[in-house]
Here is the input.
Amino acid sequence: MKEIISITPSTGGAVTPNDIVGRDEEINLFWDILEKQGIALFAERRFGKSSILRKMEAESKKGFITIYKPVEGISSPEHLAAGLLDRVKELGLIDEGLFKNLENFYNKATEVIDEVQGVKLKKLEYTWQKQLNYLLSKLTEKHKGKKIIIILDEFSIFLDEISNNEASVVIGFLRNIAYLKEYGNIRFVYCGSIGIDLVLDKIKGEGHNIGDPLNHMYKHELQPFTYDNSKYFGKCLNLGCELNLSDKLIEQICEKADHIPYFIDVVFDKLSKSGNSNQQGVDNAFNEILNDTKGKESIRHFYDRIGDYYPNTEISVYILNFISKSANGASETEIANNLFTITTATNRLEINEEIERLKNDGYLFRFIKAAERAYDFKNSLLKQWWRINKAF
Here is the structure.
């Protein structure tokens, strides 16, 4: 049996690599995939995406050079190029003399980049393209024979925060890099807590012809912990918090949290602070999570992002309202009939498109009910929160 280690709650903060447990299978899978291609990794907030990726940088596999860069809040492609250069310097991936040359080039932003031997891209029209191209060429030159992994965390949010024109150029440029023989050892990992497809749809909606910019990447939706890994994480927190909970109560916490790492962590944090490490304490902790409407526990994020990213917010909210009040989910016909009693500003095709969007973005899962497609919330915790706080 795996040794139980002492872990204390992080409640959303950065987790040290040694405390990131329960994701060995995913990490091994990602290394295998990165031998051949890049990865588009997505999941809802608090599933542990960033923790996995930081662990991969800290414990990079032999034969790989791994660069992890959070890009949420970066306001332009120029700042992205500068941020990657700074991260390369922090990690000591190029020697000081070469770094000075790189830095000089970044500052001068001359046309010399077009003369980098062997590298041919479509015309580089922007300074940041030349900077990134030059940086990548020098990394490749310095680390011959190794795979260079560049992880862009919250990449979909970065694309959404810059202009659609800039986003279309960025996504096209990085895709072109992936097809160049000279850059055959470079892999990108795009990570996002909102479906990157939603952002790409917005870019396409403005008339930008970006095709399918992810068709060269392996798309992976990160799932909650498995039952065994969830229970192991709970036992590690139990030891770290010195709570002495029974196995039965630990299992209950994991199941009620839908095996999502963050919410397991939050419950143990609440139990530790309250000193009430019994059934009543567990019930109180989940009630606090379910009754929170200020976003403190991060469930509100699921509601807010519909308004931020969905083209038909009202219809999507109506669909989730109805399903949240349906004990066993609802069929497409039941969903549509309910919507038609509320609004006439839609039709069955639009309704089905919104249902599909919600499914693809992790809100719903599909099953068959009386020989018809039917849907329910993917996570019971979100369903309860939605019914309590948002449904009408």
Remarks:
- The CA atoms of residues 66 and 149 lie 5 Å apart.
- Confidence is low (pLDDT under 50) at residues 111-118.
- The beta strands are 39-42, 64-70, 147-153, 186-192, 218-221, 330-331, 364-369, 372-377.
- Residues 127-142 form the longest helix (16 residues).
